[in-house]
Amino acid sequence: MPKSKVRKKAVYTPPAGDKRTTTPVKVTGPTNPIYVAVFLGLMLLGLLWLVVNYLAVDYIPWMAALGPWNFLIGFSLIVIGLLMTMRWR
Protein backbone atom coordinates (compact mmCIF):
# COMPACT_ATOMS: atom_id res chain seq x y z
CA MET A 1 0.00 0.00 0.00
CA PRO A 2 1.44 3.42 -0.90
CA LYS A 3 2.36 5.74 1.97
CA SER A 4 0.53 9.08 2.10
CA LYS A 5 2.53 12.24 1.68
CA VAL A 6 3.30 14.22 4.82
CA ARG A 7 2.50 17.88 4.49
CA LYS A 8 4.53 20.37 6.40
CA LYS A 9 2.78 23.52 7.56
CA ALA A 10 4.65 26.77 7.59
CA VAL A 11 5.17 28.31 11.02
CA TYR A 12 2.94 31.34 11.50
CA THR A 13 4.75 34.63 11.92
CA PRO A 14 2.68 37.73 12.59
CA PRO A 15 3.06 40.71 10.27
CA ALA A 16 5.85 43.11 11.24
CA GLY A 17 3.58 46.18 11.27
CA ASP A 18 1.22 44.72 13.91
CA LYS A 19 2.79 45.82 17.21
CA ARG A 20 -0.32 45.98 19.41
CA THR A 21 0.26 45.68 23.10
CA THR A 22 -2.35 44.57 25.56
CA THR A 23 -3.08 46.76 28.52
CA PRO A 24 -2.98 44.84 31.78
CA VAL A 25 -6.19 44.91 33.76
CA LYS A 26 -5.87 46.52 37.16
CA VAL A 27 -7.11 44.33 39.95
CA THR A 28 -8.58 46.40 42.70
CA GLY A 29 -8.94 45.51 46.33
CA PRO A 30 -11.81 43.72 48.01
CA THR A 31 -15.41 44.74 47.44
CA ASN A 32 -17.06 47.24 49.73
CA PRO A 33 -19.01 45.48 52.50
CA ILE A 34 -22.11 47.49 51.58
CA TYR A 35 -22.08 45.85 48.14
CA VAL A 36 -22.03 42.42 49.77
CA ALA A 37 -24.89 43.43 52.07
CA VAL A 38 -26.94 44.66 49.09
CA PHE A 39 -26.64 41.48 47.03
CA LEU A 40 -27.24 39.25 50.02
CA GLY A 41 -30.22 41.42 50.95
CA LEU A 42 -31.66 41.17 47.44
CA MET A 43 -31.37 37.40 47.41
CA LEU A 44 -32.96 37.09 50.86
CA LEU A 45 -35.70 39.57 49.94
CA GLY A 46 -36.52 37.55 46.82
CA LEU A 47 -36.65 34.35 48.87
CA LEU A 48 -38.82 36.04 51.50
CA TRP A 49 -41.13 37.38 48.77
CA LEU A 50 -41.67 33.87 47.42
CA VAL A 51 -42.23 32.37 50.87
CA VAL A 52 -44.75 35.07 51.80
CA ASN A 53 -46.44 34.53 48.44
CA TYR A 54 -46.97 30.86 49.23
CA LEU A 55 -47.95 31.24 52.88
CA ALA A 56 -49.87 34.50 53.21
CA VAL A 57 -51.13 35.49 49.78
CA ASP A 58 -54.74 35.04 50.95
CA TYR A 59 -54.24 37.54 53.78
CA ILE A 60 -52.50 40.28 51.75
CA PRO A 61 -54.95 41.72 49.19
CA TRP A 62 -52.42 43.67 47.10
CA MET A 63 -50.19 40.63 46.84
CA ALA A 64 -53.12 38.47 45.78
CA ALA A 65 -53.92 41.06 43.10
CA LEU A 66 -50.44 40.62 41.61
CA GLY A 67 -51.13 36.95 40.94
CA PRO A 68 -48.38 35.22 38.98
CA TRP A 69 -46.32 38.41 38.90
CA ASN A 70 -45.23 37.52 42.43
CA PHE A 71 -43.03 34.77 40.98
CA LEU A 72 -41.43 37.19 38.54
CA ILE A 73 -40.73 39.69 41.32
CA GLY A 74 -39.28 37.10 43.68
CA PHE A 75 -37.11 35.35 41.12
CA SER A 76 -35.97 38.67 39.64
CA LEU A 77 -34.71 39.81 43.02
CA ILE A 78 -32.83 36.55 43.46
CA VAL A 79 -31.32 36.68 39.96
CA ILE A 80 -30.22 40.31 40.39
CA GLY A 81 -28.50 39.34 43.63
CA LEU A 82 -26.81 36.39 41.94
CA LEU A 83 -25.64 38.56 39.05
CA MET A 84 -24.15 40.99 41.52
CA THR A 85 -22.04 38.17 43.01
CA MET A 86 -20.07 38.05 39.74
CA ARG A 87 -18.52 41.43 40.56
CA TRP A 88 -17.67 40.45 44.11
CA ARG A 89 -13.97 40.19 45.01
Kindly describe this structure.
This protein has 89 residues and is mostly helical. The protein has a domain at 33-85. The protein has three helices and no strands. It has helices spanning 33-56, 61-66, 69-84. Helix 1 runs antiparallel to helix 3 (69-84). It is elongated and about 85 Å long. The N and C termini lie far apart (62 Å).
Topology:
Elements: H1 33-56, H2 61-66, H3 69-84
Helix pairs in contact: 1-3
Protein name: Cell division protein CrgA
Keywords: Cell cycle, Cell division, Cell membrane, Membrane, Transmembrane, Transmembrane helix
Subcellular location: Cell membrane
Q: How many strand units?
A: 0
State mean pLDDT (0 to 100 scale): 88
Oligomeric nature of the chains: single chain
What is the end-to-end distance?
62 Å
Structural classification: mainly alpha
Helical content band: 40-55%
Indicate the proportion of strand residues.
under 5%
Gyration radius from CA atoms, angstroms: 28 Å
**H/I helix tally:** 3
Tertiary shape: elongated
Largest sheet: none
Order of helices and strands: HHH
Task: Report the uncertain regions.
Answer: none
Descriptive keywords:
52% helix; cell cycle; transmembrane; cell membrane; Cell division protein CrgA; mainly alpha; 89 residues
In short:
It is built from 3 helices and no strands. It has helices at 33-56, 61-66, 69-84. It is a multi-pass membrane protein.
